[in-house]
Amino acid sequence: MGIRFIGQLQEVHTVRSEFRKKIFNTENLSELKADFEKAKSKLLLLDYDGTLVPLIKDPAKAIPDKKLMGLIRKLTGKSGVTLSIISGRDYTFMDKYFGSSDIELIAEHGAFYKEDKFWVKAFSQSDDWKKEIYPIMQKITDKTPGSCIEEKNSALVWHYKKCDDWLADLREHQMLNLLVSACTKNNLYLMRGNKIVEVMVSELDKGNAAKRLLNKKPWEFVLAMGDDTTDENLFAALPEHAYSIRIGTGATKARFNVMNQKEALKILEKTGGIIRRYSEPSSSVENSDIPGLKSEPSSHCRFTAWE
Length: 307
Known about the structure:
Elements: H1 2-22, H2 26-38, E1 42-46, H3 66-76, E2 81-86, H4 91-98, E3 104-107, E4 112-115, E5 118-121, H5 130-141, E6 148-151, E7 155-159, H6 165-185, E8 188-193, E9 196-201, H7 206-214, E10 221-226, H8 231-236, E11 243-247, E12 256-258, H9 261-271, E13 293-294
Parallel strand pairs: 1-2, 1-10, 2-3, 10-11, 11-12
Antiparallel strand pairs: 3-4, 4-5, 6-7, 6-13, 7-9, 8-9
Helix pairs in contact: 5-6
């Protein structure tokens, strides 16, 4: 027992040591800024929830404020910069808040992308699978107060951020166990995210979505940021010279970690030579109705697509 315990302690120490090596520091920032400034072609690939805006209990309220939009305008206004937001949000949300900006928009983890002012569907699989998956999710939702189901064009998402932790853990395991067989049969991708379980068409992921932009030209500078499981495919698709940053302490394919979303914004500010202070969205921010949500009336749960 003693030897096993010592071995476990050594393993924990090794993991922590490796994590400390990946923490983005001032030396890394100086190198990133220098590479950004000398590059003629620059690609920024940014997640939305948990990266550009903080994760909050009600994602419908996590909309971009004036300060964030100001940062985006200044970054896209710099010579040689192409900025892309690659999000799990649906294209209705993306178009509403970023449609008039000079940004490459990618919605639903790559299911749709905007090109020449039009949204392009990037997958071919039908949605017949939803007839089998939705009832499974509904069965767990009915037994889990505070949870709800969101329907996107390419996915079904079970949200449980508002649930009690002990019940959420139990129901998550039950949900995954019920979904595995059906997802395998229908060739679907089953994913655990930040307080979500998502089922989506298998041909989609952020890495494949990013390749469309990465292949447009030989980018001299690439920076990617994200905070969740879906961003790992993005990090894996990047060229060797790219800067990849995972927000949070999770194991990652990214080169670096930062502790939280505020640190990620500071990196963007300093990269672009922009000094601003950012605050979390207030509770009084506009809460617009976004189509695509399905939940039982008793759940009182309103979500828009998020990750």
